[in-house]
Amino acid sequence: MKNGHVESHIQDNGTAIIEFGHPLSNSLPGAILHKLADTIKKMGEHKKCKVILLKSAGERAFCAGASFDELVAISDLDEGKLFFSGFAKVINACRLCPVLIVARIQGKAVGGGVGIAASADYSFATKHAAVKLSELAVGIGPFVVGPAVERKIGLSAMSELAIDATQWRSAEWAQNKGLYSHVSESIEKMDEEIEILLEKLTHSNPEAMSALKKVFWSGTEDWETLLVERAEISGRLVLSDFTRNAIQAFKKK
Asked: Per residue in 72-93, is it b (16+ CB within 10 Å) or e — as a string?
């Protein structure tokens, strides 16, 4: 677990379980981002896979977003673009995956974690799963995850998160805005609800679900290039003195 992990397996009923994890609140270094995207693609194409459950390790934070250690180590625009393209790759993998993706959000989601929740087709959460787009607070901005979040909750709510970058919004807020489909009082109750839906989906028509997914994601056909262009914006900003100083100050808190 020192450098994080991405693990996957397919259950007998056709549910593919994908779990990512990192000791720093399930943050997302570049290696995990790229492996996560590749795993989503691989599982979605597996002939036995009927539905994907995307989850993170542990019972606390769902995902702390970008790895600050990697952010401060970026030395040029190419490195910056490559790092933020990892988030683009995960979002596009979810978008293009032919099977439905259900997300399990057990705790707080920050930045890229909010983007992952927004990229799932159906998200379960607990009441502890508050959300925050903290990018502006460290001198960047939610450029790559922004389209995914906006698609789910609308421009007004996404702007609220992006502008007031230090303020947490509750899981109830996220559900009311459409980011979460279902919010439970506890992890145990959430897992019960997840199992009920997964059981239904594994017995649903695969062709119908795949066709529905294409409908859900209509209008996003340009994301293959759009998100990479957004990654370049973030990659440029992360090189600024303002952002480097802001990240270092944030790490010391």
From this structure: eebeeeebbbebbbbbbbbbbb
